[in-house]
Amino acid sequence: MHKNTLQRSAVGETLTIKGYTYGMDVIVHIGVLRLTNNYTREQIHTDLLSRGIPISEREIQYLYEVYIALLKCSTKEKLDKVMPKILENGGIVISLDRVQPEKGNETL
What we know:
By secondary structure, the chain is mainly α. The chain has helices at residues 10-13, 24-35, 41-50, 57-88. It has a domain at 10-81.
């Protein structure tokens, strides 16, 4: 085998999104830290580095955007399942709470 040959695992490839270096585990971890724990990009960066995952803050932003896209896909699927019940009940009520925006990010 040549020294510069890249070997990939077929099973491992199913755990990543084509074109991305990091697996779904890292993408989900970033999303959970951001949405559930309200971590900043810097805090997520520190967390990942402490786990031995070399990554830049910019890459964290890219992967967070991937997480949001995946979340939206799954949300549409869930919405399609519950929409008949929503229509049967005459709609839904949405409540908003005032949120302090993270520096540099927009909010409602």
